Amino acid sequence: HDKLKKEAASLKKDITKWRAKADELEDAQVQAKNLEDTLEEKCEENKSLHERVRELEADLEKRRCESWRSNARIDTLQDKVHEGLVKINSLSDELENLQQENKNLHE
To answer: What pTM did the predictor assign?
Structure first.
């Protein structure tokens, strides 16, 4: 009879240990699920960030193209200004010559 009591006590201890292990396992499963959820959230955030980076890169490329076009227009305008200055100088020289001729004719 004592042997049965000892066995029963031993089995109760084992059951208590296994219940504790089952609780630990359940806690570990909850933690694993939480980590899985967190990982999924981070993946979604990462996707969103990658998408935003692609949008910013496309915007940057667009702005670069606009900048190149603006610079080309500036270069064209600078060339036209230079041509205008050359013409002004030429006309100024021509005017001077005509004024000199006019002066010579009146003398």
So the answer is: 0.55
